[in-house]
Design brief:
By secondary structure, this protein is an alpha/beta fold. It contains seven helices and eight strands. About 4% of the residues have low confidence.
């Protein structure tokens, strides 16, 4: 039986667990596309700024759903390889390099599509709550965490509705706090823990971000343009 009806319900439940950070005026950072509906509920409940961190999974040759790493956007992109996924790719890992080039191209496309001319929310000295709709291998999440730390936040909190226990153990040392609502055993694909798990479009991402910017202006919070 699914744990959540949809991502919005998961976001409201996660927001309750993250409520202690409300007083810190955190920045809620979503991993698009799927993490955005979850993060939007968290940001709304915590009266926090909402932004995104563009991360792209590196798929194995012929098996795009098998993660061999991930790349995160930035002036100096962060690339993380997944040890289990990389096994068997061969000397020099040409498949990894090829996947990395393709992922960097897609990351740049998504950044332009999602943010346009808007500047990212500054993270230096802030409490950052990194949110996704779930974790599978953890490679994408690890890349995101390492990317966030390059912006010198005061604290990094990882918040997800569902994830495998093993992945959470591996990620926990990389953040100040980790909040995961469910760690089912055995773990199934993230989508199977939701009753409704639709794919989101670029337009959906822009809509969530536009609504967040409007809410920030209404309450007089500073959101870069």
């Amino acid at each position: 039986m699914p744990l959540f009806t949809d991502r919005a319900e998961a976001g409201r439940a996660l927001a309750e667990a993250l409520a202690p950070w409300s007083a810190e005026r955190p920045v809620v950072l979503a991993l698009p596309r799927g993490g955005l509906p979850v993060a939007a509920e968290v940001a709304r409940a915590l009266n926090a700024l909402l932004d995104i961190l563009v991360v792209r999974k590196l798929g194995a040759p012929g098996q795009p759903e098998l993660a061999i790493g991930a790349v995160v956007d930035g002036d100096d992109p962060v690339v993380v390889g997944d040890t289990a996924g990389l096994t068997g790719l061969g000397p020099g890992m040409p498949a990894f390099e090829s996947a990395k080039v393709e992922a960097l191209r897609e990351v740049e496309r998504r950044r332009r599509a999602y943010l346009g001319q808007h500047k990212p929310v500054p993270l230096s000295g802030r409490v950052v709550i990194l949110v996704d709709d779930g974790v599978a291998t953890g490679a994408t999440t690890e890349a995101a965490i390492r990317g966030v730390w390059r912006h010198h936040p005061r604290q990094v909190v990882l918040g997800v509705p569902v994830a495998p226990r093993e992945a959470m153990r591996r990620l926990q040392p990389l953040v100040d706090r980790l909040v995961c609502l469910h760690m089912p055993v055995p773990f199934q694909a993230v989508s199977l823990h939701y009753d409704r798990f639709p794919q989101l479009s670029d337009a959906d991402v822009r809509r969530f971000l536009d609504e967040a910017r409007a809410a920030a202006q209404t309450r007089g919070d500073s959101q870069p343009e």
